[in-house]
Amino acid sequence: MTSSTSSVITLKINGEKHTLPVDHRTTLLDALRERLDLTGTKKGCDQGQCGACTVLLDGRRAVACLQLAVAAENREITTIEGVADGDRLHPVQQAFLDLDGFQCGYCTPGQICSAIGVIEEHAAGWPSAATSDVRPEAGPPPLSAEEIRERMSGNLCRCGAYVSIVEAVARAAGVQADERRGEDVPAGKGAAA
Ligand code: FES
Ligand code: FES
Q1: Which one, 10, 147, 149, 153, has the greatest CB density within 10 A?
Q2: One domain for residues 51 and 76
Q3: Does the predicted TM-score (pTM) go above 0.90?
Q4: Structural domain boundaries enclosing 73
Q5: Does 102 contact ligand 2 (Cβ within 6 A)?
Q6: What Gene3D superfamilies does the database record attribute to this sequence (predicted)?
Q7: Ligand nearest to the CA of 165
């Protein structure tokens, strides 16, 4: 049913299409959690401050609480439920597990989605506020702990698991760099940056 304040929309989430009526004011976060039972994406502040609701839109990080569901039509939406490759965890998920990158786990889905975005942004040569030389000819900076902290600074962790989170992101970035080069990476291992 549609009205001047609602529409039937189709969202493509983790490769599957979902058609549902939504009030135009419904956020993507509420559509995921309350309408589609995709509760892996967490609600923390509900105002763009904590990063708990981070998902990937067309491969880029976005906080789902500041995104209207109607504006997410025709986008590729990836949530934590969709980052693994079947039974094979995403390298970022594996690194968080191996290095204890969490305590209570509430912020973890957002941290992992954000880290996936960070690694792609870095590989694409995007600078951050911690990058000392942003000239294009300088090339991408090493993904140092300082760079990771800055790039992940939108994701808060009330448990303070930041040290392990930074280590996990560094390890996953090393694994993915090896995979890009076509090198074999043993399960659960990887080069820390
Ligand atoms: S719940 Fe979206 S940023 Fe906090
Ligand atoms: S692990 Fe508890 S809030 Fe981050």
Answers
A1: 147
A2: yes
A3: yes
A4: 6-82
A5: yes
A6: 3.10.20.30, [2Fe-2S]-binding domain
A7: 2
